[in-house]
Amino acid sequence: MSDIKFDKSTIPDLSGRVVLITGGTGGIGAEITIELAKRNPARLLFTGRNAKAAETTLGRIRSAAPAAEKAVSFVPCDLASLESVRVAADAILAQCGDDRLDMFLANAGIMAKPAGLSPDGYEVHFATNHLGHALLTQKILPLLERTADLPGGDTDPRAVGWKGGNLDFAGGLRTTQESALLGRWVRYCNSKLANMLYARELGRHHPKLLCFSIHPGVVSTGLVADLKLSDRLFIQMTNFGNIVTPEQGAFNHLWAVSAPYESIEQGGFYEPVGVLSSGKGVKAKDEKYATQLWEYTQKELGRFM
């Protein structure tokens, strides 16, 4: 296991703050949710597909931070289904009302799944890891921006995306992309590239918000445990000595919540823990490519807005 470190005492008190995290029902997401619950948030919402797993997270919060129990709530959401995301976004906004939303951590994701399409007809990794989060982001944007405009200066709204390949905008995103060599890994990496590009474009289009993407490291979670043996061995061999626990995998997210606002680069990509990277490959830094993804995404999501 890799020995990455983070001082949890640097996580600020979240009194008065409202935080939303996707994928809080297990793995890294559960660790982040539980850790932030200890910091007295006014409201902490987490999403996931599995209500039973959500109860496990809530039970751990009752043990670790009993005073936070009433502030924490679970919102069912299947990011692969844009209709499910729309319903979840409405539920989130109903709970927040006209109050505020200070931080959005787009943590949830799938990895190396068999070739398939989402209910809306998109390649399933692209649909879950990118489009679902993009729709949720667009739905909550007005509240994030209103929070940025609150008087008093005690606001620093953040949208934190998970790690960011080639994206085939000419119809390929509506196919299973089965033909690619190491197909399931290529499809996964393409969706992560989309996350990186979209975070940068989001910050460019909405400069009131601090938008950036992070890499949690190679984490031993359910994403890995659920893979077939050959894929698990592939991960072990290509990341020998660098695999981290879910608790360690949460460190970069917790850093993203804790770091001074002015110390984070708009649209940046951060390796564990808090290390600014130039990005992975030429495509991750291609402004034209980022614009193309933004325009494609906005067009595809239009009917759900």
UniProtKB/TrEMBL annotation:
What UniProt keywords are attached to this protein's entry? Oxidoreductase
Can you tell me which family this protein belongs to?
A: Belongs to the short-chain dehydrogenases/reductases (SDR) family.
What is the protein name stated in its UniProt record?
Answer: NAD(P)-dependent dehydrogenase, short-chain alcohol dehydrogenase family
InterPro entries linked: NAD(P)-bd_dom_sf, SDR_fam
Q: Which Gene3D superfamilies match?
A: NAD(P)-binding Rossmann-like Domain
Xref: PANTHER family:
OXIDOREDUCTASE, SHORT-CHAIN DEHYDROGENASE_REDUCTASE FAMILY (AFU_ORTHOLOGUE AFUA_2G04560), RETINOL DEHYDROGENASE
| Signal peptide bounds | none
User: Which molecular function GO terms apply here?
Assistant: oxidoreductase activity
* Presence of the UniProt keyword NAD in the record: no
What the entry lists under Pfam families is as follows:
adh_short
Give yes or no: UniProt keyword Oxidoreductase.
Answer: yes
